[in-house]
Design a protein that fits this description.
2 copies of one chain form a homodimer. Chain A has about 475 residues and is α/β, with parallel strands linked by helices. The first copy, chain A, contains 11 helices and 27 strands.
Chain lengths: ~475, ~475
């Protein structure tokens, strides 16, 4: 055993601390979901000698939280399929797993993680620590929201519990919350043939897209038999003769056999706060570009942390699986001695609802305005491939650009799932990453064959429509519509 | 009528010429396909007063040459559907069309286009001229290649002729040439139930992709009953008892009722050469970034011209529909008085063959080597979305990067048509446009939902595999395979 001075530079007030370490670096990761496993894998990839141990609360490391709706729908027949990697994969990668283990406290001065009672050992030592404790579903403190038939959905445990209830013959479900999990679950439950009512407090489902596109999504939900009540909140839930009765604001009630609360998540930060890690304004853990918490030797990643936004140039709470993987990879690299920096995100996301794909990246008009941009939003409706080839569907594309500078700020696309919506938004995300001007999109050499696109990709045509609207000084409602 | 001095700057040896012009600028465009129409529309968009006239050799302006195989297959029921825009659309956009008219000569000193005999007028005057004369199919000077049952495929006239022959009950077709039109026509003709043999002189079909991927394409063709003979040329075609007999090199023969020669195209440059426009090394018209020919007042665009390659930083002959639209738009803008510059292309292309999409952008190992790069090519096989959601198919992704600098140089993807192959190559094309390093691809915020992608998009996983191969100094055959 040797003693090595490890100096962590560049963090304000970070003391020079002395780690006891063997020749093998000991990296402990609290949390076994996407961020934690990504960190662990990256650390081992870069330092094959490192001892990397994951502490996880349950028995399901690296399960795809995003995949749960598809197991509940029946599309994914076996829940075991939801594992990004099996236990064997993780062991083969050299990771040590400590499942079903809760962490009681952290002691960065001693480099120790205290485990909850009943654990094999009372504590384990570390040289470097990654906090990847994720998020928990919000459960509003309202009457009846704790009833047993009121479910949340986050962990595999939540999924098993809901699955059991559905298998027991539930016929009707009230979904509270019209975010992406809410609409995915509406899809999933209709696929099982259940009666589904979705209640959303906001003016539309999917608050991540503009109202002009929200209507298209609402139509899709209605066409598949989902009853949507927007502008409506649930203020209490009561037991009523074997059913649940939800009392609505501004009035009315919904009766269903089961309720699913999917109104967002909140970061789990108590362990990190316990050692003095700072929270950002959003309430999630504050980290720097290297995913350092400010506590020496402690990194954080995933849904417990804030996410740097490339365009806003500050951090927000945008918990997404794709981001958790990226942040985890950076944290793991740096815990293993690297100096990687997280480039931030644009909040890029896509969701499939029945036959629609709904994708967005970057800013929308309202937040662009709030940030001091002079946004112009222009919507186009353009076929996803040449209309003469069978199976063309309209893409509804909204381009947000800065009227003054011409900079591309954001994009939203809604179209048929066959229309490459997700990977078209990726071109916009890549363009925004590089601070492209809307006009310059026409210079990109994008691929074309009639069954899959057009000589100008629809995002380029939409960019050209935006430029015309800009030059003719049209307002954001003067949507151009192009079909070429 | 006023007289205005027009000074064309920046072209070597371009004289200051004096155009007669009315208050309306008179722009004449020779050629009515993609480049010509794009130029005309852009000119009118920027100068609504301009008199824009298109001279076209046939009666089918702005028809989608790329769409012809889909009409021949029956997927596009009506050939009229192949028009990007109808005659009414073009008139409504303010364009004047002169169909079925051949140009005999050009006189840039007088600003005159001489029309062929039989035209309504012997000549028409112009202030600005755009040459968009396109390309013609190569027809090797070999015995029997001029027989009536030996077809080529480029114009609507060619398409009608082939369609009539097929409707007359042809049962077997020999396709000579395994480029993208060859394989698309193999698909089209099999869809009609015909017997199809494809003969390709090179070692594989689709010379735009590496041999490791060519095998996948060959399997797809074979699985759909296309007989492929690679490494085989046709040296002569003979009439044989109502059939055609093709004599093969290195031996053997193929008997079929009809032959289709699709062995590439050559630029139509004679008009431009007649006024002293220069050709590039490729034999196509040389143009500068503004699409100027070097002859004052004369621009050129589309398949008659060379294309600037962003990575090679020089011009090649890469005739593609998507490029023709871009070049035409630039030429039209500048003919109307603008100063737009063509950013060049990366040769990005995609072709659909049965259920496969095959896409490529940028450089391949061999041409990267020839350009002085130190390329490393790494292939990965990655599911196009999370395997637990139904319908996942493998993407075969090849990443070409510079081993020394890490710069992304090119990419190739082969996968199922449902796998967003075309728009995934677009992200790579956008990345190359911005001179990204392979490693930096992992910083892009790309969209994820289990039915459509993975938390790391497959192109990012492929980039990570490339980085690992680079750091372990693996050769290009040490292909990594990832399934996460």
């Amino acid at each position: 055993v040797t003693t090595i001075d490890v100096t962590l530079q560049g963090i304000d007030k970070a003391p020079i601390i002395r780690h006891r370490r063997s020749t093998r670096l000991r990296i402990v990761i609290v949390g076994g979901s996407d961020a934690g496993v990504a960190a662990a894998l990256r650390a081992r990839e870069l330092d094959a000698e490192a001892e990397v141990e994951l502490i996880l609360a349950d028995d399901f490391p690296n399960f795809s939280v995003c995949g749960i709706p598809f197991w509940l729908s029946g599309e994914t027949p076996d829940w075991r399929g939801l594992a990004h990697r099996t236990l064997e994969d993780l062991s083969a990668a050299g990771l040590k797993l400590r499942p079903n283990t809760l962490v009681k406290g952290l002691d960065p001065a001693r480099g120790e993680v205290t485990l909850s009672e009943g654990s094999q050992e009372p504590s384990i030592g570390y040289d470097r620590l990654v906090i990847a404790t994720g998020a928990v579903p919000k459960r509003p403190q309202l009457p009846g929201f704790e009833l047993p038939d009121v479910h949340v959905l986050r962990t595999m445990g939540d999924a098993f519990s809901l699955h059991r209830a559905l298998d027991a013959g539930v016929g009707s479900v009230l979904i509270v919350g019209g975010g992406y999990i809410g609409v995915e679950m509406a899809d999933a439950l209709r696929r099982r043939g259940l009666e589904v009512v979705l209640v959303e407090r906001g003016e539309q489902v999917l608050s991540t897209i503009d109202s002009e596109l929200g209507a298209t999504v609402a139509d899709e939900l209605a066409a598949h038999g989902v009853r949507c009540l927007t502008g409506t909140g649930v203020v209490a839930i009561e037991r009523d003769d074997g059913y649940l009765k939800a009392l609505l604001d501004p009035g009315g009630e919904i009766v269903a056999e089961l309720a699913l609360l999917v109104v967002g998540v909140q970061p789990q930060t108590s362990l990190a706060r316990g050692i003095g890690a700072e929270l950002g304004e959003s309430g999630a853990l504050k980290v720097d570009a290297q995913m350092r918490t400010g506590v020496a030797g402690v990194w954080a990643a995933g849904d417990a942390t804030e996410t740097y936004h490339q365009l806003l140039q500050r951090s927000l709470y945008i918990p997404l699986g794709s981001t958790a993987h990226k942040q985890g990879r950076i944290a793991g690299e740096n815990a293993a001695g690297g100096h990687a920096e997280f480039a931030g995100t644009l909040g890029t996301q896509v969701v499939k609802v029945f036959d629609l794909a709904i994708a967005a990246t970057g800013l929308r008009e309202a937040n662009a305005l709030a940030e001091g941009f002079t946004p112009l939003t222009v919507q186009s409706v353009i076929e996803d491939h040449k209309a003469y080839y069978p199976g063309a569907h309209p893409l509804h594309i909204r381009i947000v650009g800065d009227r003054r500078t011409g900079q591309l700020l954001g994009g939203q696309i809604v179209g048929h799932i066959s229309g490459q919506v997700a990977k078209r938004i990726d071109t916009l995300a890549t363009a925004i990453y590089h601070r492209m001007r809307v006009e310059e999109l026409s210079s990109l050499d994008l691929s074309y064959t009639p069954p899959l696109s057009a000589p100008w990709d629809p995002i380029q045509t939409a960019a050209q429509v935006w430029e015309r609207a800009r030059s003719t000084n049209c307002g954001s409602r003067a949507a151009g519509v192009e079909g070429r």
